[in-house]
Every structure is written in structure tokens, then in C-alpha cells.
Write a structure and sequence with these properties.
By secondary structure, this protein is mostly helical. The chain is about 75% helix and about 0% strand. It is globular and about 50 Å long.
Length: about 220
Amino acid sequence: MRLSKNFLKGVRVNQVIQYLTYSDILMLSGWGLVSPIIAVFFTEQIEGGSVAIAGLAATIYFLTKSLVQIPVARFIDLKKGEWDDFWTMVAGTLLISVSAFLFVFARTPIHVYLIQVVYGVGGGLAYPAWLALFTRHIDKKEEGLEWSLYYTATDLGAALTAGLGGLLAATFGYRSLFVIVGFASLAGAAFLAGVTRKLKGHKIALKKIEIPLAV
């Protein structure tokens, strides 16, 4: 009984962790609408589409992301302060959002492959910076709980949207669905603004200047 009363006593998740989590809930939930049916989109809506194209598209995304994220991670680690992390994260999130809108205009396999490159670059920029900020600001002695809260929230969001995506695609079409994904990602990007007041190195100390007055 005492355990149940004290289980969450004194737990306070700091503002940076909250906003990073809110951002990913929106973005991952948005992409959760299309992730389960993306292969169907490639085979039904792309000229000459096939399961092989879906597999190659996934390969291009992961390969691009893998090539980008290590240099990006090294760059932000070497820079002082956290504003470089923030803007790198924002740039990556915006590219991810743009890639969703680009799928609206995809007609051929080449279009898909190019969009996957954009998506991969966005992921390669966003994820290292996001992880760096989350790691630095996570509350001491609450690491396990805060990571678990993050994954629980994002997994529940993806679970709720996974089944909804197929219904929306059948009702309004795949291209309308990608518009929804794009706006959900942009909403996630907007939530990143909530971390700015807590970033290190964003304040400039100003010396007090006394101006003598003529008597």
C-alpha cells in the first residue's frame, strides 16, 4: 500500500523533456498513420510500383540516415552550447515534414527514392540532436521513468493512429493522408519551441554600464 502511494510521489518531469516528448508524440503519431500501409501505397499508387520498390525505398532511407547522423552528432558534440543542437533538430524535423508533403506529388519510383533521401537527411539531422538534448536534460534518478514515459506516450500514439490510417486512406485517399501526416509533423516541430528557454548558452551576460550625468 505504501509502495502504491509513494510510487509517483515527488516525480516532476522537467520542461525540456516534456516538450521533446510532446513533439515526438505528434510526429510519430502522424507517421503512424501511414507506416503500416506505406508498402500498399507504393504498390497501388506508384507507377510500376511493387513490393521490391517498397523494400528499396526503406533501404535508401536507412542508408541516408546512417550516413548523415554520425557526422551531425560529432558536429553538435564539438560545438559549445545547445543552440546548434536545437536548430539542427528543427531543421531535421522540418525536412521530415516536407517529405510527407512531397509524397502527395509522388508518381514514379524515382520520386519515391528522392523523397526517401530527403526523409533520411531529416532523420539524420533530427535524431542525434534530439537525443543529445534529451540526454543532457533528463532528471537525475528519474532516467528510467522518463525514458519509459516517453516510449509509452509515443507507442500509445502510434497504436491509436495505426488502425486509423487505413480507414482514412480508404475514405479520403493516400494523398490526403500524407497532408495530415505533414501537418502533424509541423505541429511537432512547433512544440520544439518550448525548450528554448532552458537551453544552455542562450543567454548573453551584459555588464552594467553607468553613464555619468552632467550636474
